[in-house]
Amino acid sequence: MKIKHSVAFVTGANRGLGLAFARELLARGASKVYAGVRNPDGVDIPGVIAVRLDVTDPASVAAAAAQCADTTLLVNNAGIARVMPSMLAPELADVAREIFETNYYGTLHVSQAFAPVLGANGGGAIVNVLSDAVWVARPFLSAYAASKAAAWSFTNSLRIELRGQNTLVQGVHVGFMDTDMTHGFDMKKTHPDAVVAQVLDGVEAGAEEILADAVTVAIKASLSGQQAAYLNPPEIV
């Protein structure tokens, strides 16, 4: 599909990667960009239409899909992460449930609500922002990694089902990005603009998967070898 003249709905578009998506979609000529956020009053992006959305609340998701029934491109970007001191931390189960509500069930709810909208509008595309953590689960991000692995599995199944309605489902795998989520972490980070450019180019080319940085490319390439990256994760630098 073409980005120009598309109608896009981006979850979590008030900052970081979501904000980069909203700006680039407008720059590429999208006719309308909806920003699905919990607090619409906090969105001040010229040309972007703020829509109240809580991805953990199915009623909120359904209302947003009904309001934005002209959507042709959905970007499931909303996500959260929590750093844990240990896999044995007693609060890990509660933290995991919280993260799954947004990263997995949120993606599921929004995809289910908007897939019929996209189908009615000719097919379009769904972009699910995932992570290299689907393949490399470091202990301090174990709950986040598990949620993204579940979202990856959901994405792979959704892709197969929605081909019949001419909807592209793209999974985006990326490592650490320079956003609020990684603020204070001293490591090499990919700029959100670079990720968005690859994703939108991929949507136009019909790409079903994006590996957005060199580390992610290397991690996936290792999976069929005897020293797969999940056995010995690469050092964070």
UniProtKB/TrEMBL annotation:
This is SDR family oxidoreductase. It holds the Pfam family adh_short. It comes from the Bacteria. GO terms for cellular component: cytosol. Keywords: Oxidoreductase. Belongs to the short-chain dehydrogenases/reductases (SDR) family. One of its GO terms (molecular function) is oxidoreductase activity.
